[in-house]
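Long-time lurker. I teach an intro course on protein structure, and each term I like to show students one example going from raw sequence to a predicted 3D structure in token notation. This year I'd like something fresh instead of my usual example. Would anyone be willing to generate the tokens for the chain below so I can use it in lecture? Attribution to the forum is fine with me.
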Amino acid sequence: MPQERQTTAALKPDNAEPAGPVNDGTQGASTSVADILNIPPYSLNREEKARLLDLVLRQLTRRHYENCAEYRKIVDALGYDLDSERPYSELPFIPVRLFKSLDLLSAPRSEIVKTMTSSGTSGQQVSKIYLDRSTAANQTKALTRIVSSFLGKQRAPMIVIDAENTLKDRNNFSARAAGILGFSIFGSKRIFALDENMNIRVDEVRAFIAQNPSERVFLFGFTFMVWQHFYRALASGGQTLNIDNGVLIHGGGWKKLAQNAVIREDFKSRLREVAGIPQVHDYYGMVEQTGSIYMECEHGYLHAPAFSDVIVRRPLDFRPAAIGEPGIIQLLSILPASYPGHSILTEDEGVICGEDDCRCGRLGKYFKVNGRLKNAEVRGCSDVYMQRVVG
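-- Reply from a regular --
Happy to contribute to a lecture. Here you go:
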């Protein structure tokens, strides 16, 4: 799939509120987060992307240093020189678990409009992510740009493989609720496939499909819930649905499915068997960097868009791993302006598979997630839900 190309010299601002200007060295032009979000998400090659992210991520590091006392202490303890013009691969990163133990804000509390919380089992601490209006708006725009490149720009009838009562407090979102609401912007109308007891509403779903016979149908859900409450519910009841014009996007943990010997290709083929869904895309992301998601392409690889990047680090010395070498996943994003989440070290293991040369035609790094690091907490939406319900 060839992707539209656009270099930093061609950026044009829009009306989104920027985190601040950055001089990109291109004919005196100035770029901002709002500018960068106008770039087609998979159009920058390695050199173009590095030039852009070096500038913006350095700016964000300084912003958080000046506005978040806890982050400033971390950077000072590392002895990092803010005036050095190092590549973004050498910027400080913080462990994702730190968001569970500290309130990390780089904006006044009076400007916080939304608080996101990560998934967590009963009694487990959760991350709290504080969003101001600008950060929340840019997250939505980034998500729109990324997902639209897979779904198209026209909104479609949407089936949410979840229960409607998952959406409770609109100001204090769980990761699961935030995912549903975030992806709902791609739906022209919406139905929830499950009732409050997590039973599939087969008749309602079948009627919804019949009302939209010629339109592409967009399905969204978290991985385990799609498997447990959609696929298995249909298969065990000997029922099928005809969604042969459907596109399913799902995300969340694979840990329990893998333990039950469910592999990705098996997941896709089983969904085709019971519902005829021809396109199934996984995505990787976390509440600590909402909006910066990594979509799975047609060849099974996760892709880093222009707005963010992934680095795999060796566990012994944290140096960047080579292509094909497994290590700890670090995520970088230009979006977090109200909290210091622009450079975080996850608790996941992965491997970079290549850069700028995926067969799907998308530029940028492409990678795979191998799973959770040994002894790391279970934290994905699917894994947490499975642990609560199934045990």
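Some talking points for your students: Residues 247 and 279 are 5 Å apart (CA to CA). The mean pLDDT is 85.
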